Amino acid sequence: MRLDAADRQLIDRYQRHLPVCERPYQEMARELGLTEDEVIARLSRLQENQVLSRVGPVFEHSRAGASLLAAVAAPENQMDLVAARINRAPGVNHNYAREHAYNLWFVMTAPDEETLDERLDELEHQLQLPMLRLPMIEGYHIDLGFDIDWEALP
Amino acid sequence: MNLPATRPNHDFLIDRESMSAWGLLRLREQLEKGLPLTPRPYQTLAERTGLTEEQVMEAIHRWQHQGLIKRLGLVVRHRTLGYQANAMIVWNVPDDQVAELGQALASVPFITLCYQRPRRLPEWPYNLFCMIHGINRDRVLQQLNSLMDQHQLRDVAHAILFSNKAYLQRGGRYVSND
């Protein structure tokens, strides 16, 4: 998806440090030489076009609650079905197909460890597939707010 | 425009420590869904949570300061932009070396995530995970090649798990129920 210069500037400048003040979009507009309406319209459009998943905070997951990376090996011809079941389970926020015997990888979250385990048990039971449960032991680098390499993009 | 016509000024009465726990929980729920795209988003959040705009901003500042909020801003869907080759690379590293290697890999510019997770033997022998949000497969494989040279990883057992499809991708919903 091609974005114009102002869209790119918005992304380059505001993947972090979005202002916390009464009129944050006005403040951003001032910074980028746009109008407040324009900033709001651009953000709305970028969200509609799935360029942005949202504007907002990214929570530090180890403090926000319990979460865990899990994987199952779904039969090749049932991937979509199993993936849909995983998506419906409470607390799932990422679910990817990956090229491996364990071919569906998802992150499940919950308010606390106990609820998380219950949710995983329930899903494992529903899917009738053994589930790899991989809690994080130590995070060395977790930040998806990296600079976009516009030149290298297709 | 989002203000009620008359707004009693009771702000000076609010004890900051007693911001309602219920209101804060609702604020967390709302924030997990994203900031409203209204001219005064914090006022909109205030209306939805029963807090004041000032309390909303203060809570966010406090959470940022405490590290509960890691960053506040535009959350990009990299795949839409053209980052089509997402690779999770997993390594089986001796336990006494995993921290050092993890820290080294964390500073590589194209590595976007890096963490240690437990092995699950016999089926899962890998304990160090890193992610490359790449633009295409060839480029990712080149990046991986240079990584293995620079960090003496040629002989370390590993697997490359490219992702060919995202079934679901959204922010963590820790306190909200949907």
TrEMBL record, chain B:
Pathway: Porphyrin-containing compound metabolism. Transmembrane segments: none annotated. It is an enzyme of class 4 (lyase). Residues 81-167 form the Siroheme decarboxylase AsnC-like ligand binding domain. Gene3D superfamilies: 3.30.70.3460. It catalyses: siroheme + 2 H(+) = 12,18-didecarboxysiroheme + 2 CO2. Its EC number is 4.1.1.111. Probably forms a complex composed of NirD, NirL, NirG and NirH. All proteins are required for the total conversion of siroheme to didecarboxysiroheme. Belongs to the Ahb/Nir family. Involved in heme d1 biosynthesis. Catalyzes the decarboxylation of siroheme into didecarboxysiroheme. This is siroheme decarboxylase. The lineage of its organism: Bacteria, Pseudomonadati, Pseudomonadota, Gammaproteobacteria, Pseudomonadales.
